Amino acid sequence: MIKNIDKIARDIISEAGYGDYFPHRLGHGLGLEEHEYQDVSSANENPLEAEW
User: For residue range 5-52, what is the model confidence (pLDDT) as tens digits?
Assistant: First the structure.
């Protein structure tokens, strides 16, 4: 699941002592708009798969 990527990154950031400074999501889709579906966050339970 995509939320697992967020957790791995968040755990690394927290272990380094910066967890309190990272309250936002890890990332988002890239495309024509600034913030596109799908986001890399703790709330995203979708599977990670390439969209071509």
Answer: 889 999 999 999 999 998 888 877 676 666 666 788 888 888 877 766
17 within 8 A of 30, measured Cβ to Cβ: no
Contact indicator for 24, 30 with CB cutoff of 8 Å:
no
Exposed (0-12), middle (13-18) or buried (19+): which is 17, by Cβ within 10 Å?
exposed
Burial 18-40 (b: 16+ CB within 10 A, else e): eeeeeeeebebeeeeeeeeeebb
Per-domain boundaries in the chain? 2-40
